[in-house]
Design a protein that fits this description.
Blueprint: H1 8-14, H2 18-29, E1 44-46, E2 57-59, E3 65-66, H3 81-93, H4 100-107, H5 111-123, E4 132-143, E5 159-166, E6 175-181, H6 188-198, E7 199-209, E8 223-227, E9 235-237, E10 243-245, H7 247-264, H8 272-284, H9 290-298, E11 377-380, E12 383-386
Parallel strand pairs: 4-7, 7-8
Antiparallel strand pairs: 1-2, 2-3, 4-5, 5-6, 9-10, 11-12
Length: about 400
């Protein structure tokens, strides 16, 4: 098994702790030896500080100190490197992507930390410099759900997306470049500019549908073939042997919408390009294994930075203060305690003569009349009956009922 071809079980077995995970990142960032990220010098000295969380090196060229996370997308991270390694594998192995909520449950972290972690990993999968030749298909679609009370053609809550796909020809796997047109008008000028950026028109055969926005755009390419979807025409073999179809681009859009709808459920127009870059990375490396795809993403960590909040010196961030988003990390509310400074016992002379009125009800000062005791009771046949005190004995009076002698 190659060194990069690692399954999830193999990662858990070979990298069980923080030290082994740090060794994985060192081997993939510096496969030919450690060098300084500031000056590139290889004259570095390994530090021997005991108790350090991560290994440090000292550069003799510039005198700076660095670690494996210095100058990377993981710079200043507080997360364990083993969580970074598992997150890289989860993101690289999931063909339809992984949501931040799912990652937060699997790695036992907050949703905000998982969301920031996912976007930093997506930043290592970016490749916006692809240039294609040969047979290229292009098409556009809209990403977003339906608005209640609106027709199917309503696009106010949707984002336009254009894809440029090179077909599988001459032993080359098909490659794709998907672009978000969130703040641009979908017309011939916009899609033509994207096509000229990612293709060489003089060496490219363009395949599109019957949309009029491609009419003038196709004149700048070596050849232009179209299919009429309105007439239910999806593939046609032309006289020069080319298959006029956009089925490759349509299939790519089908997989993309399954990822957005089934995994993420919703993406904002601002962050949609990051999800498209992740999708293109997995589409273009679909012939590789999960371990190879993970290792390739780890090699792209150097020289990239993505903060959660806008740093004081500027730089890329997920939250932008100019757009009304929070400029800095919100502070935790601090409970105010009552100050007892300068408060001492009250002198006797300054105490009030009468107590202050209280909101509580005061006890009555009327004399208490004792109640008569209740007569004793007895239980007979399961009932309580009042006990009648015995009567006093009657003394007989002479002459009246007295016994005769």
């Amino acid at each position: 098994m190659p060194a990069d071809d690692l399954s999830f079980y193999a990662i858990l077995e070979q990298y069980p702790d923080e030290a082994s995970a740090e060794r994985y990142f060192i081997q993939h960032r510096w496969p030919h030896g450690v060098n300084c990220p500031s000056c590139g010098s290889v004259d570095v000295l390994r530090g021997t500080q005991p108790g350090r969380r991560r290994q440090l090196w000292n550069c003799h060229g510039c005198g700076k100190q660095f670690s494996v996370t210095s100058g990377t997308i993981m710079s200043d991270t507080k997360l364990p490197l083993r969580k970074w390694l598992l997150a890289f594998h989860f993101m690289g192995a999931s063909k339809k992507g992984m949501s931040a909520l799912q990652l937060s449950r699997m790695l036992k972290m907050t949703y905000k930390s998982a969301w920031h972690l996912c976007h930093r990993i997506r930043a290592t999968m970016t490749n916006d410099a692809q240039v294609f030749t040969g047979v290229v298909e292009t098409d556009e679609t809209y990403i977003g759900g339906r608005r209640t009370g609106r027709g199917r053609g309503y696009i106010g809550n949707k984002a336009a997306v254009q894809t440029i796909v090179r077909r599988n020809e001459n032993g080359k796997d098909g490659q794709a470049q998907t672009i978000a047109l969130s703040h641009e008008k979908v017309d011939g000028r916009t899609v033509g500019a994207k096509l000229r950026k990612h293709t060489i028109p003089s060496e490219t055969v363009l395949m599109t549908d019957e949309s009029p926005i491609y009419t003038r755009v196709g004149e700048g390419f070596s050849d232009h073939h179209t299919v009429n979807h309105k007439a239910k025409e999806y593939v046609r073999e032309d006289w020069d042997g080319h298959l006029a179809t956009t089925n490759t681009a349509e299939g790519l859009f089908a997989n993309l919408k399954r990822q957005i709808t089934g995994t993420h459920h919703h993406t904002s127009k601002k962050h949609l390009p990051k999800y498209l870059e992740e999708f293109d990375y997995k589409y273009n490396s679909r012939q590789k294994t999960d371990g190879e795809r993970t290792a390739e993403a780890v090699r792209g960590i150097e020289g990239k930075r993505l903060n959660l909040y806008k740093p004081p010196g500027g730089g890329p961030s997920l939250f932008d203060g100019k757009a009304g988003e929070p400029r800095r990390r919100p502070k935790r509310p601090v409970k105010k305690r009552r100050s007892t400074k300068g408060v001492g016992p009250v002198p006797f002379a300054t105490m009030p003569a009468t107590p202050a009125p209280s909101s509580r009800p005061q006890a009555s000062t009327a004399p208490v009349v004792p109640r008569a005791p209740a007569p004793p009771t007895s239980i007979m046949w399961g009932r309580e009956l009042p006990r009648v005190p015995p009567k006093a004995p009657v003394t007989p009076v002479a002459g009246k009922g007295a016994p005769r002698g």
